[in-house]
Amino acid sequence: MKLAVAILISGSGSNMVQLIKSMDDNHPAYPSVVISNKSDAPGLEKAQSLGVPTKIIDENCIKNNDLDFEKELIKILKVYNVELICLAGFMKILSKKFVNNFKDRILNIHPSLLPKYRGLNTHARVLASNDTIAGCSVHLVTPELDGGPVLAQTEVAIKKNETVESLASKVLIEEHILYPKVLLNFSDQIRKLEV
């Protein structure tokens, strides 16, 4: 049996697209659903065009109807029998309770060499520190922001006149390679444990 994967996005979904495309017939997992907390996330259309079901948990709708975001998220995950969650540009912090509920089953990609530069504005902070190397990390999600065990990293050299934009695009290219590799290995390990 293949593992059902949910991919959570808030924006363009470029990492999501790479993850979906990587889950081919030989992959131990398949993209079960793409979920966004933003109804206007461009990634939703991309997921649909790749044949993956999409769901929106709109924050305004949640607030106006006095609903709980994570309760709604759990309902969707149950409907799609999700066993593994990939955060791909998902700009919402999940609660300790939610993370512990899916312990060791949530992956995230972060555009820095963790534990350096957790949180936002990583590229600007890297350049401000005059680092010579940047990169990206895939890590397990824990209740501590960007603090879970790092599963893999890729380094990127910083050129002399690097800008935030040029660094971001170089790192993104590496993210697109690294995240699918980690998902493949991680899914494989989970499948072996469940046999």
Core attributes:
195 residues; alpha/beta; Rossmann fold; seven-stranded mixed β-sheet; 39% helix
Structural notes for this entry:
It contains 7 helices and 7 strands, in the order E-H-E-H-E-H-H-E-H-E-H-E-E-H. It is α/β, with parallel strands linked by helices. The model has no long low-confidence stretch (mean pLDDT 94). The chain has a 7-stranded mixed sheet with strand order 3-2-1-4-5-6-7, with helices on both faces. Helix 1 (14-22) links the parallel strand 1 and strand 2 (29-36). Helices cover 39% and strands 22% of the residues.
How far apart the termini lie comes to: 10 Å
- DSSP strand count: 7
Proportion of residues in helical segments: 25-40%
Number of helices: 7
Largest sheet: 7 strands, mixed
Instruction: Order the strands across the largest sheet as they lie in space.
Output: 3-2-1-4-5-6-7
Oligomer: single chain
The whole-angstrom Rg is 17 Å
CATH architecture: 3-Layer(aba) Sandwich
Poorly predicted runs of 5 or more residues: none
Total individual domains: 1
Structural class computed from helices and strand pairing? alpha/beta
Write down the CATH class: Alpha Beta
The backbone outline, from C-alpha atoms, is globular
* Rounded mean pLDDT score: 94
Provide the CATH topology. Answer: Rossmann fold
CATH-assigned homologous superfamily: Formyl transferase, N-terminal domain
Order of helices and strands: EHEHEHHEHEHEEH
Share of residues in strands? 15-25%
